[in-house]
Amino acid sequence: MVTKTSWGIGRIIIWIILIFLILLTLLPIWIVLKTALTPTKELFNNPGSLFPENPTLLNFKRVIGLVSREENVAAGGSGQSINFLLGIRNSFIFTSLVVVLQTFFSALAAYAFARLKFIGREVIFFLYLTALMIPGVILFIPNFILIKNLGWLDTYQGMIAPFALFSPFAIFFLRQFFLSIPKELEEAAKLDGASAFGTFWRIILPTSTTPIVTLVILTSLAMWNEYFWPWLIGKGENVRVLTVALSIFKSQTPQGAPDWSGLMAATFLSIIPMVILLLVLGRKVINSLQFSGLK
Amino acid sequence: MAISTRAEPKIGRSKSLLHRLFNQESITAYIFIFPSLVGFFAFIVLPMIRGIQISFTKWNLMRPPKFIGLENYKDAFTDPVFWNALKVTLEYVVLNIPLQTLIALFMAVMMDRVTKSEIVRGIFILPYLLSNVIVAMIWLWLLDPNLGFLNLLLQQFGIHKQAFFFSTTQGIPTIAAVNIWRHMGINALLFYAGIQGIPKTLYEAATIDGAGEWGMFRRITLPLLRPVTVFVLVTNVVGSFQVFDTISVTTGGGPIDATRVIVFYIVQNAFELTKFGYAAAMSVILFSILIVITLLQMRVLRGNSSDLSS
């Protein structure tokens, strides 16, 4: 729309509200960083200030275990470190496994629904869509028992199983896009004797990079931030993802006087990947998130 | 987005059913949908049936489940903590949804009419990119009763320090506020995307007719945004009823039962008290409530129709 250049009272108020909302979003994150940079002993001196007086990286070093246990406790920590790099690695494995498998299997199914004729196509597709409306609360107890009986607690296969094979949103989203691809593209391939999978792999997928990138961004975000299921299935340190590691780290801090500078150092380290994502892929992320409303 | 099912030419009736089931195209299709079918049955359909089955049993996973009929449901209806959990959850939803939706709508209009800056949009969605756990940690510190930044700010204005998370009266409103902080930006973005789909000519015509911002919002934006609003409301309501992460990290259900929401209570019954049958019964009750609410919402808001087409 045309931006009006007149600066009425209303416009000034709107800008003040806008700036307030921006501050409301960014200030908390700044306070986290400030606290993380403040030596624990000085936390009580001037907690209301916006800048650390004697900034230190000690808190970051403590939470990732770069200082000795004694030094850590002396600085107000619980002696526990968060093993941040292991958490990042586990989150990365968990997220990439789900993203790759879910996208691939959903694309396969979406192609069948969009292009192939088979008995039950409409019925199965309709059933898949109703799965979009099923709240997770009814599913997690039986799913937990299933994973436990399979002996998959504290394993990646247990953590990814409910996400990897089936995503109604991904199937629906890709099917809508596949329907819009001109059929002529595939017909040429078929004349050359390409199989259905060959057509899918060499024609459909390369033509669909935009929606697939959108889907990959949405799924990555959801999985990277997932807490409930990995918390139920994968508390063991060797598979513990970052969200779970952070919450366990928090529950280990002394109850009376929590180790706030340590907690905030861990929190800020967890924020960094997302800020980087936003800085590097900002426009793509924003555009992808807009699509999540198409469900 | 409309769900279009393209009209396919009817397959010749002369061909036998067997042939139609087992021609090459069908076989390929079944292979293609096979992984998703396995996932659909193993992690959606069967668990739903299993969940209902388990709800009729007493089961601690150690010994075989014992069928006890409707006992768990009876227990739930006479369990004051269960009723309190429902009440607390409802309170959370009622505080969360209207405020969140209104703020998001307002932000969306600002993002459209005041500044289209992508940086502003990027800033607004940043909280949503952070996990519930991170967001909970941030606010646990900012709202700390002794050292929290917000409490110190309040003191500057002569207001006493507040307990926030750790108060029986402020616990749920605080958790609602924290979730609004995380979700207002993403919802605003969804509304913003919806607004971009409204034909600009409508606004131009309205401007010529002398309509103000508020008039245009009420007469054009709001009605034409209805499909997006329905989506945002339905997903947010269903999500809010299942709030868990924030509470798990911050209050753990306390003080007393003030923030013991329903999913938290279900999880405690299952995984701390190993009362899997009872937990499953409460899941089934919540599930039924959610299905009814979803259908009601779709009906009241007439989810499928945009006013543009009529």
Could you provide a short overview of the structure?
The complex is a heterodimer of chains A (295) and B (310). Chain A is mostly helical and 295 residues long. Chain A is 68% helix and 0% strand.
Quickly name the level 1 CATH class of the largest domain in chain B.
Mainly Alpha
Number of strands of chain A: 0
> What is the 3D form of chain A?
globular
Task: Give the number of domains of chain B.
Answer: 2
CATH class of the domain at 84-212 in chain A: Mainly Alpha
- The low-confidence parts of chain A are 1-5
- How is the main sheet of chain B built? 2 strands, antiparallel
Write out the strand line-up for the largest beta sheet of chain B, numbering strands in chain order.
Answer: 1-2
Structural commentary:
The complex is a heterodimer of chains A (about 300) and B (about 300). Chain A is an all-alpha fold and about 300 residues long. Chain A contains 14 helices and no strands. Chain A has a domain at about 85-210: MetI-like fold (Orthogonal Bundle), CATH 1.10.3720. The longest helix of chain A has about 30 residues, at about 85-115. Chain B has two domains: about 20-70, no CATH class; about 80-300, MetI-like fold (Orthogonal Bundle), CATH 1.10.3720.10. In chain B, about 70% of the residues lie in helices and about 0% in strands. Chain B starts with 16 loop residues before the first helix and ends in a 10-residue tail after the last helix. Classes of the chains: A mainly alpha (about 300), B mainly alpha (about 300). Chains A and B meet through α1, α4, α5, α6 and α7 of A and α2, α4, α5, α6 and α7 of B.
